[in-house]
Every structure is written in C-alpha cells, then in structure tokens.
Write a structure and sequence with these properties.
By secondary structure, the chain is an alpha/beta fold. It has 18 helices and 22 strands. The chain folds into three domains: about 30-145 and about 165-270 and about 485-490, Aldehyde Dehydrogenase, Chain A, domain 1 (3-Layer(aba) Sandwich); about 270-465, 3-Layer(aba) Sandwich (Aldehyde Dehydrogenase, Chain A, domain 2), CATH 3.40.309; about 505-530. Helix 10 (about 285-295) packs across helix 11. The N and C termini lie far apart (about 65 Å). The relative contact order is 0.14.
C-alpha cells in the first residue's frame, strides 16, 4: 500500500551535454584505449536524457594481450624508479585532479547521471588517496628487520617486490574513485596496470589516465582496454599477476575461482545489503540527516550505502517522521551545478531492478512512506528516493541488494535484537550506528559483521580514513583497499635471512645428542627471558 505523501521536489527536463565534453576531449581520451585504429565502436548513452554520449573503440582479446606485453616491457623500468620519483608523479596528479576538477565533474555526471555534489566527493577521494600513497608508500614498503631464528646470529629482513602487472576491473557507479583509486597504490608499489573500466563510464577513467600521463607517468605503465567481460575478461585473467575487481558477488566468485586456478591473488569488493542501527539514545534530528546521507547518495548506487534501517522502538515514530520529511524535500533533477540532491540511475537495468523490487514489496503488503515511483517526466532513468516499511522476508528487497534509492525501516526492541537483525545477512560490507554515547556506539559497532562500521556517520568517516583498511566480509568480498593492506596486496613478500657464525647444525666437534641438549636449554632460557 502507499501512504499519503508529498513527492520530492523535482526539476523538469534534463540538460544537454556539458561544455567540457567537447569532441576534442573525447578524441583525446578515446585515443588512449588499447585498441586497433579500425576497432569496432560502441556508443554510450547519457543517463540524464537517453541520448548518445560518446563512441568508444572496443578492445579485442588480442588487444588485451598486446596491452599486457607493453605493460610487462614497461614495468621493470618503472619499478626501478625511486619512491621519490614515483611520489612526484602522484603529487602532480593530485594537483591536476584538483585544478581540472570541472572536467571530471562534467564527465562523471554525463556518464553516470549522479549529482555534482556526489561527483565532487570522488574528486576529494582521489586527491586524498593520491597524497596518502605518494607520501606513505616508501615507509609501508621499506625493507623491515624481523627477529632472526637465533638472536644476534640470524639477520632477517622482509622485502616487498611488485607483483608485476595488475589487472583492475572497475565499475560504473564511482568511475573516478574506483578506477584511479585502485590503480594508484598498484602503481606506487612499482606495478604496471592493465585496466578494464565499465564501458558506460570509461571516459572518466580515461581522463584519469590522461592526467597521470600529463603528470609524468611513462608510456605503457598504465593502460586501459574497453569491452564486455564476456569478451575480454578471460584474457585479462590469463595475463594478470594479480586481479583487483569491484562488482557483483556472482562475478566475484567466478574471478576467485579463476584466480585460484592460476594461483594468483585477487581482491574483490562485491555486493552489500548494509544496515544502519539507530539506538534509543540517538540524536533523532542528526540521525535523520545521517540517514538521508546514507541512503540516497549517487541515487543509491553505492556499495556502502544503507538499504536496511533499524530503529529502536521508543523513538521509531519520531525518527521516521523526521526522515520521511527530509526525503520528501529532496531536490531531484539533472543539472551540471550543485543545485540538486539526487540525480538519476545510470542504466535501464538498474531502473528495472529498483522498480521490480518496490512493486514486489508493495504487492506483498509493504507501505511506501516516500517516493515509490519512476519519474519519466524528468528523464528516462529517474526514480524518487523511496522509504518503505512493513517489509517482510518473502519480499525480494528484504535480503537482496537493490542498488538504488530505496531503504526499508524495521523496529527493534533492544540492542541484542538490533545486532542480530543487522547481522542476519550473508553480506558484510558497511554499517552505521547512531548513539549520543560514543563509547556505546563503538561497542555496538564492534559486534556488527561488516568490514567498516561508522558511528554517527553514514559511510564517509570510514571510507575517508584512508590509513585504515576498507573492504567486505562474507559475500561482500575479500581483500582490502586503503591503508597498508591496500598497497601490500600488490606486492610479493620476500624473506632474506643471513646466518652468521653458527646455525642449527652442530659443529663437527659436538655430538648431535649433546647439541640437542644445548638447544633445548637455550629454548628454555629464551622463554624465561620473555623472548618471542
């Protein structure tokens, strides 16, 4: 059923293509695709309008193989550069991204349909990531002394070597953050990268590549191929020394199987059905603002956005009223400025999924408190920010990821029930907890089955803390980006142990039986001294 509601503020017809999207820019960017001059081309569509956006050359499996050949030829010289040399390139890239951000914002909006506000967060994300790894990689990857087998006599060092050529498969929903953000640490670690961005948002990824070359990246070190996974995915896997993938859980499982067959590593950020828990002592107004920020960024097309919202029974009515009132006031529309709160979905498939999930829920008894309908009057892929209640397990969206501007609200009686409900999902990517008592909020957060948990924030606090790892548990993937793990995964660890004077083999003048007694006594002494 549908409750009485006022629909979100809307803006009539979407704009044309942005000023930055000139034919010269498109030509320059598409020239960076690893494909033959006479390659077949595919035309992308502008989500705001449904009109044609850009024609992109399509890479063949042979083109992908050639890209890896060039990458392998370029990688040793790149790895031989000092950290300071690579740092200077990354910091120049940082400056160029900030200086030329309007180009990036226009491209991201034109390709994804997101608002300028959401696009700008990607610019800040890449600036932060670039600076972090540029200035931190040398320390994170420096040779490290480790305890030797025999104190004073064994000199042991841990070294870190680049994997070689890393394959990065990046999605359409965050085309700058996911494309450049995963390539930056791989490059800083001394690897070459062959990347397949999603075709729909490839121009944004190519823009990042173009700027990296302007910053001084040598030719061949970072290359991009365009095409369907069904066409070139196997060739990427067959040639990669490591695979970084962001996308669906189903595809992630297949990549994990293939990587296992090849005995290479893989990092996978996959789906989510993220939960937000509002405890009874939460600041209701602040939590309602937080829920808006948690559920509707990039029109809900964000892996860490919230789709399940659990609210303590004593404050449920007041919270729901505040949240719904805010959702109804959201300004939905298309425009290349900062005047809109919510944009549109990126492709027809997402619109169909969102529509089907909401219609299924309503048909089975869910109540729509806000939104609940597509808005073709605004553009072909617009859907209103939607809040549901009375959602039950037989409804598709109860447990399945919608990946759109839809959230379901559920009550809970106490913290134990809230934790159990939030953890009742095979996914475990992100979560959010709201409480006036920070210590209590952190204690509840530690009990949630999620790779990142934010207290009194939606997702930006954990995501923006790039010195800490970010990634999923369970069906949300494996491996981590950000922090030390975000760059160490792109390296091979090597132990070099130099034994001085005497090792574990007895000298010729000591019998083995006596040598065993000496070593036994030594081990007991080391334990008594507290030595690890």
């Amino acid at each position: 059923m549908v409750a009485d509601q006022a629909h979100p503020v809307t803006v009539a017809s979407g704009p044309g293509l942005p000023a930055a999207l000139t034919s010269d820019l498109v030509a320059r960017l598409t020239a960076r695709v690893a494909a033959e001059p006479d390659a077949a081309r595919v035309t992308t569509t502008a989500p705001y309008t449904g009109g044609p956006l850009a024609g992109l050359p399509v890479s063949t499996p042979a083109d992908v193989t050639s890209a890896f050949v060039r990458a392998r030829a370029a990688q040793p010289a790149w790895a031989a550069k000092s950290f300071d040399e690579r740092k200077r390139i990354l910091l120049r890239f940082h400056d160029l991204v900030l200086a030329r951000q309007n180009e990036a914002l226009d491209l991201m909006q034109a390709e994804s349909g997101k608002t300028r506000r959401d696009a700008f967060l990607e610019v800040t994300d890449i600036a932060i990531t670039s600076r972090y790894y540029a200035r931190g990689a040398a320390k994170l990857l420096a040779p490290k002394r480790r305890r030797g087998a025999i104190p004073l006599l064994t000199h042991t060092t841990e070294l870190r070597h680049p994997k070689g050529v890393v394959a990065v498969v990046s999605p359409w929903n965050y085309p700058l953050s996911m494309a450049a953000g995963d390539a930056i640490p791989a490059l800083m670690a001394g690897n070459a990268v062959v990347q397949k961005p999603d075709t729909q948002t490839a121009l944004t990824a190519l823009w990042a590549l173009d700027l990296m070359h302007e910053a001084g990246l040598p030719p061949g070190v970072w290359q991009m191929v365009i095409g369907r996974g069904s066409s070139i995915g196997a060739t990427l896997m067959d040639n990669a020394d490591y695979m970084m993938f962001t996308g669906s859980t189903a595809t992630g499982r297949q990549i994990a199987r293939d990587a296992g067959e090849r005995l290479i590593g893989a990092s996978l950020e996959l789906g989510g059905k993220n939960a937000m828990v509002v405890l009874e002592d939460a600041d209701i107004e602040r939590a309602a603002d937080g829920a808006i920020a948690a559920c509707f960024p990039s029109t809900g097309q964000l892996c860490v956005s919230i789709e399940r919202l659990y609210v303590a029974e004593p404050i449920r009515e007041r919270f729901v009223a505040a949240f719904v009132a805010r959702a109804r006031k959201l300004k939905v529309g298309a425009g290349y400025d900062f005047g809109y709160d919510v944009g549109c979905l990126t492709n027809r498939s997402q619109l169909e999924t969102v529509t089907a999930h909401v219609e299924d829920a309503v048909a089975k008894g869910a109540t729509v408190l806000a939104g609940g309908r597509a808005r073709p009057d605004l553009g072909p892929l617009f859907y209103e920010p939607t809040i549901l209640t009375d959602v039950t397990p037989e409804m598709t969206l109860y447990a399945h990821e919608t990946f759109g501007p839809v959230v379901s609200i559920y009550p809970f009686r106490d913290v134990e029930e809230a934790v159990a409900l939030a953890n009742a999902s095979p996914y475990g990517l992100n979560a959010s907890v709201w409480s006036r008592d920070g210590a209590r909020g952190r204690a509840v957060a530690a009990r949630l089955h999620a790779g990142t948990v934010n207290v009194n924030e939606a997702f930006a606090a954990a995501w923006g803390s790039v010195d800490a790892p970010m990634g999923g548990m369970g069906d949300s993937g494996l491996g981590r980006r950000h922090g030390a793990e975000g760059i160490l995964k792109y390296t091979e660890a090597q132990t070099v142990a130099h034994q001085r004077v005497q090792g574990f083999t007895p000298p010729p003048y000591i019998p083995h039986r006596a040598w065993a007694r000496i070593l036994t006594a030594s081990l007991k002494l080391l334990k008594a001294l507290g030595t690890r």
